[in-house]
């Protein structure tokens, strides 16, 4: 029986090498670079790994090596990534490898527990919940969604009475700017007072210098001036969040960083809990995240950070590829290793990538040249890299489709066949990556024209289909009559097809209505707020009252009137309950075959609610659809027994549907009703 190396003997040196563990678990042997990382000393470690170099597998093997040699138990391992998908993949690989080790060694009691693999934000949330009271943060604070954040700030902006003379933006743009500024300040751990003081020093420094101010400097000063005007709104947003006992994602990370920075005992607790820490995509960590991790796991704790300076994609929120350069100094003199073997790309692709990254290496960046694996598959469709510069997007789509067809035919060795004639098992795996979603329809159409089956992935699902988008835009117009963008989509869509001339006339009508409203309103001598003319006018108002018909085309006027009436009818139903509400119905006597269409009266319900009855055929086992029930409903005389004092007014019930129809009696009904006096 092979015994697992205990923690007590870990100081004597590792018992298993990376190659021995791979052979024991029947895995591919690691490369020399991977073996050096897997068996590195239990100290701070920086791994610079290029795209497709097997960093996830290497991190999982590192955990396996540490556990097998007794340096840590599984529950003492912490792995942090940026996305839930990456966290799930890393956790799955680690659990799989540990499970294989348990089955091979036969010592389950020594491998009890599981490693903690989470995202940076979820780990920060746990720090706030467990230790937030040390800094005065309520652990029960709820996390605001993006929609809630926008609604809070939008309300503050529209009710703001402060000085906004240098801010020439619409309220919605101001709302976005306030949210962006608040998020940036949280990511950089900067308060409003600190930012205001820095801006004042910046203005004084620039204005004290002699000479003419360049245009770029004037623009920077103007932006700083606008930012100063937004700071009161940021303060109001912070006060409102405190009143609601809520926080957003930026606050979550900032609070965790401040708790870890200002309370060293938190770091001692976390270091005792996690003996080994793995940090994925470290080049994308923000300043607040670096402060959090450094405060918790600095001072030489075994932290292994993996990153690639060429893949830094979060610069817009404070991340910098220079974070990798500062890692050794911030975590106690970490050693550095590299992974340069790419398991994802062919030599031709890597040659292009290395040529494009040459300027980065010349500028001093830690960008190693990637090399292909020792064994690669045969090329498909000729050369692996093609480049084309075409005049139009249609030519580009056609070229991509022709290249795809050629690759299929060459791979199947059927030069004269059609794409649909290529056997499925001989079709190579193919993908087309685009920069913009607007490129997808043309490429998809070109591929389908040539008989190539296409599956579009990475979109929003049903929300991106035109029909569902129209429904969503209709709901937005009903909820927010000032949403002109959604209304324009509906007016110019396939249903109403309103032309440019009629749209211009509708816009002029909305301006006329706004001007008339301004003329009726009293004008103060010194208005505190000057409203935006675009916000005063609403296309929905003009649609409800389009004005004289000669301003439009005959067909356009008719369509606008029809759509205005339709929106008015829908608006009258906004206060009605959703059709998914369930009602339990009281059963009539067993001898009758009629069923009530209104729920049984409850104590305290208003009198005068009459009951409609629907005829049901006993013995029918078919589940009726909503249309069949609606068609089979008919009015029948009300029961003779009536509660005292109830009026004889009738009520009309509509739009109900049956949820289920058992063989004997329907029991549960669901519906949305509109009741109007008969």
Automatic annotation (TrEMBL):
UniProt domain UvrD-like helicase ATP-binding: residue ranges: 28-346
Phylogenetic classification of the source organism: Bacteria, Bacillati, Actinomycetota, Actinomycetes, Micromonosporales
Organism of derivation: Phytohabitans rumicis
UniProt KW Metal-binding keyword: no
List of residues binding ATP: 49-56
All copies of domain UvrD-like helicase C-terminal, residue ranges: 347-678
Family: Belongs to the helicase family. UvrD subfamily.
Gene Ontology CC terms, in alphabetical order: cytosol; DNA helicase complex
Listed SUPFAM superfamilies: P-loop containing nucleoside triphosphate hydrolases
Stretch list, region Disordered: 577-678
Name of the protein: DNA 3'-5' helicase
């Amino acid at each position: 029986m092979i015994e697992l190396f205990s923690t007590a003997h870990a100081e004597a040196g590792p018992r298993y090498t990376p190659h021995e563990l791979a052979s024991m678990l029947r895995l591919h042997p690691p490369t020399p670079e991977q073996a050096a990382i897997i068996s590195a000393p239990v100290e701070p470690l920086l791994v610079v790994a290029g795209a497709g170099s097997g960093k996830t597998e290497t991190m999982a093997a590192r955990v396996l090596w540490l556990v097998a040699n007794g340096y840590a138990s599984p529950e003492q391992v912490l792995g942090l990534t940026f996305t839930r998908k990456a966290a799930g993949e890393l956790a799955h690989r680690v659990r799989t490898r540990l499970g294989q080790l348990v089955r091979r060694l036969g010592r389950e009691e020594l491998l009890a527990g599981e490693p903690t693999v989470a995202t940076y934000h979820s780990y920060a949330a746990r720090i706030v919940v467990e230790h937030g009271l040390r800094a005065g943060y309520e652990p029960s604070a709820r996390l605001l969604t993006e929609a809630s954040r926008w609604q809070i700030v939008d309300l503050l902006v529209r009710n703001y009475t402060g000085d906004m003379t240098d801010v020439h933006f619409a309220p919605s743009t101001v709302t976005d700017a306030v949210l962006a500024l608040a998020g940036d300040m949280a990511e950089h751990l900067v308060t409003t007072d600190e930012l205001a003081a820095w801006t004042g020093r910046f203005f004084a420094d620039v204005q004290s210098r002699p000479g003419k101010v360049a245009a770029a400097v004037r623009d920077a000063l103007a932006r700083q001036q606008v930012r100063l005007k937004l700071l009161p709104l940021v303060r109001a947003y912070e006060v409102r969040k405190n009143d609601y006992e809520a926080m957003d994602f930026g606050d979550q990370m900032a609070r965790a960083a401040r708790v870890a920075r200002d309370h060293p005992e938190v770091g001692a607790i976390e270091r005792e809990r996690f003996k080994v820490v793995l940090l994925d995509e470290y080049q994308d960590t923000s300043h607040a995240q670096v402060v959090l991790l450094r405060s918790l796991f600095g001072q030489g704790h075994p932290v292994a950070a993996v990153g690639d300076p060429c893949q830094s994609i979060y610069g817009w929120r404070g991340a910098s590829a220079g974070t990798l350069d500062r890692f050794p100094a911030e975590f106690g003199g970490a050693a550095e290793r590299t992974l340069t073997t790419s398991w994802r790309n062919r030599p031709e692709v890597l040659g292009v990538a290395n040529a494009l990254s040459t300027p980065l290496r010349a500028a001093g960046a830690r960008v190693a040249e990637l090399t292909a694996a020792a064994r690669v598959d045969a090329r498909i469709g000729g050369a692996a890299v093609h480049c084309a510069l075409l005049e139009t997007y249609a030519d580009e789509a056609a070229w991509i489709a022709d290249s795809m067809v050629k690759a299929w035919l060459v791979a199947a060795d059927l030069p004269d066949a059609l794409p649909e004639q290529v056997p499925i098992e001989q079709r190579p795996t193919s993908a087309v990556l685009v920069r913009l979603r607007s490129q997808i329809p043309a490429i998809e159409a070109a591929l389908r024209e040539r008989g190539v089956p296409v599956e579009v992935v990475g979109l929003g699902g049903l929300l991106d289909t035109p029909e569902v988008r129209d429904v969503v835009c209709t709901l937005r117009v009903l909820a927010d009559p000032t949403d002109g963008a959604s209304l324009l989509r509906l007016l110019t869509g396939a249903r109403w097809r309103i032309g440019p001339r009629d749209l211009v006339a509708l816009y002029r009508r909305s301006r006329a209505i706004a001007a008339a409203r301004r003329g009726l309103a009293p004008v103060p001598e010194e208005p505190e707020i000057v409203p935006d003319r675009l916000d005063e006018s609403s296309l929905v108002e003009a649609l409800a009252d389009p004005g004289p018909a000669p301003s439009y085309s005959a067909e356009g006027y008719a369509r606008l009137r029809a759509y205005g009436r339709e929106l008015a009818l829908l608006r009258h139903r906004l206060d009605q309950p959703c059709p998914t509400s369930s009602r339990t119905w009281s059963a009539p006597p067993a001898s009758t075959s009629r069923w009530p269409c209104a729920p049984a009266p409850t104590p305290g319900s208003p009198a005068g609610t009459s009951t409609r009855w629907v005829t049901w055929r006993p013995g029918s086992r078919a589940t009726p659809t909503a249309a069949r029930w609606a068609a089979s409903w008919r009015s029948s005389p009300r029961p003779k027994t009536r509660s005292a004092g109830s009026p004889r007014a009738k009520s009309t019930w509509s739009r109900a549907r049956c949820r289920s129809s058992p063989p004997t009696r329907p029991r549960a009904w669901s519906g949305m009703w509109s009741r109007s006096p008969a």
